[in-house]
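Quick illustration, no need to memorize.
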Amino acid sequence: MVSSETRVEHSAEARLSAESLLARQQQTAHARLRVYLGAAPGVGKTYQMLEEAHLLKSQGVDIVIGLIEPHGRVDTETLVGELDRVPLRHIIYRGVTLEEMDTEAIIARKPAVVLVDELAHTNVPGSRNRKRFEDVLEILDAGIPVITAFNVQHIESLNDAIARITGVRVRETIPDYFLRRADEVVNVDVSVDTLRTRLRQGKIYSVEKIQQALANFFRKGNLSALRELTLRQIAEDQAVRGHDYREREGLEQAAIPEKVMVCMSSRGSAKKLLRTGSRIAGRLASDWFAVYVETPREEPGRIKPDDYVALEENIRFAKELGAEVLKLKGRRVADALIDFARREGITHVVFGQSARSRWDILLRGSVINRFLSEVRGATVQVVPLGDD
């Protein structure tokens, strides 16, 4: 159980947080989005959201639960208490009745604030939207403020880093542009030892899963790295917001804009490249381009079916990450990319490096080498291609 001292501390934080949310909501025209970000399950994101909800309700705010996942945690289930809930929607899928958040009912209810948990969740086929974060965006578009939560491993551009750290490829992800839409990103943090203690006490997973979790995802090294990633993400978010504020208030001259270009091939997956480009663009607070070159053999009607499917998936993924996708036409890939980079003043470029023999490079040439020799003002990052 949570100590009384911890509850008082959480309540004080929630009071300031709730009052801040209300004050800032009155200062802006669009519905505000607050995100609680954590390094791992069990840090207390849902608990903190619910404490904030009770405080808002005590102040007369019409706040409802759109969806909460207690995961069997007694403290969390108890804290739900008398908060109003919007009934879940029942969907029959493959003969089984499943529950999903009812986005239409929330919008029709028009609460002052709605709580939505487990943001990275993929909805049951047949739902209004494919992903829960899309439900949240729809609720925000309807003018309803949202408080939500998720863990750092679900940020799309961190997917490769998370796989290297934990050995697990996270499949349910949230595009970076969602985090940029947030008005506030709040770090919910506890020490590695505290989190592992909570796990041993059965406060995160059921008893039969504890030892496996301690030996795998919840290893000290993994949790330390995830915690560091979360802190870095929060720091980057604050830096971008500070930059935008100073620029908006005329406190500094706008810096020369950085421009990022990711060079996609028309063949194969480009997800690793696109995640890298998204991260760079996020750090620089800049827009970015995902570019591919349509050569004569890849024109409509001539491109191989498998290549066409891969290209369409790359385009969809790039747009989901917030890129401006551009198709260039040219007989030589290098010429088209060099011309575009010069014309647009590109400052950062991301290439993929596939395994090619030395003879192949000598015979066909290297796009990367050509680019490096002719575009001197851009920073070039080469990403080894592999599993996405």
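The longest strand covers residues 288-294.
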